[in-house]
Write a structure and sequence with these properties.
Rossmann fold, 5 helices, alpha/beta, 174 residues, 7-stranded mixed beta sheet
């Protein structure tokens, strides 16, 4: 069976690459760096990370998507070719504007055809005053019904649960 492709999407500095590095370490696998280029192939447009996680007879390919909202020429094609979306949001109150901007940019896309989970990072930091802003952003979006997981630096159980939930969604559909 061909691998399931999962786009890991979130605003800049929310922890997408860190999550994938932890995922690779949990499964004792090596992450793969990849690059996409501009149309003229003269400039590197995006340096991403891919982690291939084997689960039973399936493989889940997690691809980071650039957090720069200006860079939608890179992340739109990655999302378009994906089977699932892992939406990563930053729990820090100061980052709520970035979370909202990303959710607003994704909303017009046909993301609801995809399996998906939401991961909220950095909930263990002191700078987090309330998770209410993340909840409000999600409740007002198409992503309100997606399962949510809170991942903390020293407890990655929720990351493993999110991966298994995505796998379950993907295998139900196929």
């Amino acid at each position: 069976m061909s691998p399931f492709k999962i786009a890991v999407c979130g605003p800049a500095l929310c922890g997408k690459r860190t999550l994938l590095m932890h995922l690779a370490a949990m499964h004792r696998i090596r992450p793969v760096l990849f690059q996409t280029y501009t149309a003229d192939s003269a400039h590197i447009e995006h340096r991403g990370l891919r982690v291939d996680v084997p689960l039973g007879s399936d493989t889940l390919q997690f691809h980071t998507v650039s957090g720069g909202l200006w860079n939608n020429t890179v992340w739109l094609p990655i999302i378009a070719g994906a089977n699932a979306l892992m939406l990563v949001l930053d729990a820090q109150a100061a980052r709520s504007v970035h979370n909202k901007a990303l959710v607003d940019m994704l909303s017009p896309l046909d993301c609801m055809r995809l399996a998906g989970v939401v991961i909220v990072t950095k909930t263990d930091l002191r700078a987090v005053t309330k998770l209410g802003s993340v909840d409000t952003i999600l409740e007002e979006s198409k992503f309100a019904h997606w399962p949510r997981y809170s991942v903390q630096k020293n407890d990655l159980t929720a990351l493993d649960e999110a991966v298994r939930a995505l796998h379950g969604q993907l295998t139900q559909e196929h």
